[in-house]
Specification:
single chain, alpha+beta, Jelly Rolls, five-stranded antiparallel β-sheet, three-stranded antiparallel β-sheet, 4 helices, 8 strands, globular, YjbQ-like_sf, UPF0047_YjbQ-like, Secondary thiamine-phosphate synthase enzyme
Length: about 170
């Protein structure tokens, strides 16, 4: 049995929820690994991101977003509105703000701008949708059907980022 670890680097956009189709990357990774039978775990280490399995929708709005994703975002915005001010949600509290300021001083991936951490909604959505999906691989192909696609979703709309998506393939 072999175990292979791969990592995808994903650029996301500011000002909108970013849905990145990673299905082709998954297929390419399975093929290059020579995995015939096993599984692939797809995860994100980011607490405001998710990996989801969804139907690919050919129709897109004028911004290039798939209709199903637009519908999903509209429903989520009603249930979990975007955090625009520090009084919209309890998060982040004063202790966490201080922690993040210290983190920003030591790590260039964290911005010292307090507005950038007004993302309680993204954390809640990330928790609801989860950080991973697992796909069975049979005869060198992911068993995801003819319309099933995998998406990396960045719920945090506050800034453009480069995110990480981890893949672990296990099998023969």
């Amino acid at each position: 049995m072999k175990v292979i670890h791969e990592q995808l680097s994903i650029k996301t956009q500011a000002g909108k929820v970013s849905y990145i189709d990673i299905t082709a990357d998954l297929r390419k990774t399975i093929e290059s690994a020579g995995l015939k039978n096993g599984f692939c775990a797809i995860t994100t280490p980011h607490t405001t991101c998710s990996v989801i399995f969804e139907e690919y929708v050919h129709d897109k709005d004028w911004k290039g977003d798939e209709y199903l994703q637009v519908d999903q975002n509209r429903i989520l915005e009603k249930l979990i509105p975007r955090q625009l001010t520090e009084s919209d949600y309890l998060y982040p509290g004063p202790e966490h703000v201080e922690f993040l300021k210290e983190l920003a001083a030591a790590d260039p991936n964290y911005l010292p701008d307090p507005v950038s951490i007004l993302n309680a909604d993204a954390h809640i959505k990330g928790s609801l949708f989860g950080a991973s999906e697992t796909v069975i691989v049979k005869d060198g192909q992911p068993l995801i059907g003819s319309v099933g696609y995998l998406y990396f979703v960045d719920w945090d709309q506050n800034r453009e980022r480069t995110r990480t998506c981890n893949l672990m393939l296990m099998g023969e």
